[in-house]
């Protein structure tokens, strides 16, 4: 009965995914400052409900249907063609589930967070960012997407400024926001141009992205629009040379800020590249996609090389993120179904692994860790459960067969060989670097002679910490051992998407520039 209730047309499950965190925010605002258990309970109830709804979404999702599902549409500002329009397909399904599950894990893992008022505002910011991120993932109205895209910056800014040295924290948060706002201006410029261009050829205003997909944009304009959208998404991914805001953000942010940045915030950039750039500007992608692929390979190698030389583990993970997401962009730029599918799965794997690493390093930091790669040694003997879980996560990070990272790497390499062998050859060098700094972290933190410190002999994982990490460990094994659960929905949508791209390129060559197709029926 419950499953029947969430089928399309019966229950607005997508809108519920956006609204549940906001309801949680309202509950937290009304809760008293001293009601610590109540505040944690409200945040936990909101995130668990969100995770449950996302799993119900998966249970009702038709993996063999590449079109939008669970579509919701309501007129907002009819004169301007602005509507609330949202839907789920293979591109955003797992990103929504990932966002919901990781926020639940983050709330479960939260122990002592400053004073009572700090705890309250901390949970509020987490829930606001969750609502904005999921809104951006599911929105098919371009205006609505942009609102969510920019709104996510506000809670992200405050989450980055939660702990640490105040001046450095403020500088890191400000740099992140300025970079992403600058990228947002490029995105806004491209959106405004397409909005008026659609009106010029149809006589009506519309922000419906599915309608925009039918436009055949003139060849002389496509490269400039391609540039504006790509810069906006490259800043948030982040690709070289737009990555410089990330290391300081990782270093100065709280554990909550690091998790949402590394696992959700950065994934929004890759999603935008897929949802907008590939489908709106296929001719420009064909002509200039190799430039983005080159930046992806450079980011992959550069991030790996710099990560190897880092002593501060947060900066190491920052450059590891640049490398890992560079690999994801390489798959997206391959232009093949296998490569793009692998790129999407790489984003998912990156989110899962980074969330686990940041959570576990925070747990370790509360016991004995110094923040440097070699700051603690010999922890395999004193914290065996913790060390074993960390080993599993790192192996998933490095793409060991049977764990989450392997399938995404395999598909990206397989798809890339069909387009440009040299990019794949150089890109594969990044995998060697991942193994170097991944095993380096394991060896220097968990093995070797222990440091002579009384506080080294901390307790192993508590029950609460084990409950928080269990969903992540399950995902690492599930993605690796039974990848078709995750591959099939993505592959079906990507295959449908590439067919549209091919038809659009063919139509552009057969039609006069400026023609537009009839908008697809929703």
What does this structure look like?
The chain has 522 residues and is mainly α. It has one domain. The chain has 21 helices and two strands. The chain has a two-stranded antiparallel ribbon with strand order 1-2. Strand 1 (69-77) and strand 2 form a beta hairpin. Helix 3 runs antiparallel to helix 4 (93-109), helix 13 runs antiparallel to helix 14 and helix 15 packs antiparallel against helix 17. Mean pLDDT is 81; it is low at 1-9, 112-116, 451-457 and 513-522.
Summarize the entry for a quick read:
It is built from 21 helices and 2 strands.
For the termini, the CA-CA separation is 27 Å
How does the helix and strand content classify structurally? mainly alpha
Domains counted in the coordinates: how many? 1
**Percent range for β-strand residues:** under 5%
Radius of gyration: 22 Å
Query: Which whole number gives the mean pLDDT?
Result: 81
What percentage of residues falls in helices of 4 or more residues?
over 70%
Order of helices and strands: HHHEEHHHHHHHHHHHHHHHHHH
What general form does the structure show?
A: globular
Number of helices: 21
Biggest sheet layout:
2 strands, antiparallel
Low-confidence stretches: 1-9, 112-116, 451-457, 513-522
Q: What strand order characterises the main sheet? A: 1-2
Number of strand elements:
2
Protein topology:
Elements: H1 2-5, H2 13-30, H3 36-60, E1 69-77, E2 82-88, H4 93-109, H5 116-138, H6 142-151, H7 153-160, H8 166-202, H9 209-212, H10 222-236, H11 245-252, H12 255-280, H13 282-308, H14 313-333, H15 337-365, H16 379-382, H17 384-397, H18 404-416, H19 421-446, H20 463-481, H21 484-510
Antiparallel strand pairs: 1-2
Helix pairs in contact: 2-3, 2-5, 3-4, 3-5, 4-5, 4-12, 4-15, 4-20, 5-6, 5-7, 5-12, 6-8, 7-8, 7-12, 8-10, 8-11, 10-12, 10-13, 11-14, 12-14, 12-15, 13-14, 13-19, 14-15, 14-18, 14-19, 15-17, 15-18, 15-20, 15-21, 17-19, 17-20, 18-20
